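Can't paste images in this forum, so I'm doing it all in text. The chain is below; anyone willing to post the predicted structure tokens underneath?
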Amino acid sequence: MKVLRIAVGPIVGLGVGVVVGALGSVAHWGHRPWGMVAGLALVLASATMMRAWAGRPALAAHAVGLGAALLLLSRPGRGGDVIIQLSTSSSLTGADPGVFGRVWVVGSLVAVALVAVAPAFLFSDRPPADGGETTPTPSDVPGEDVEPELPTSSTDE
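Text version of the structure:
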């Protein structure tokens, strides 16, 4: 099962990265500022899932897919529309419309980088080896403080 996860993990990571990048990009544009916050949380959660499920190769593929989606959606489309606006051109309100796009792109990359540099024990399902939680001993379990009887030998001396 582990071999299958290692082989399929990067492929799944690439696909999840593209989907998360597209969903987060649309959300950051359509529902400011909470769409961007939700998109960044989605990036952080999906990157964490990729690293915990299949390790760093899947996380790297997730980052590639995310980066590809961000790059594609920051380019002008056929009609000239841009979903991730990165330019500093001012709008009629005088606010910089590209600030949300820049925060979205940089924040997404920082979220993936944070998951990449996080310690490995955060993503492990093994119990801690340094005296953490252990299995209960019979004296710790209520009602089981009676010692088991040992079989006696039937040989008469």
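The radius of gyration is 26 Å. Residues 119 and 142 are 37 Å apart (CA to CA).
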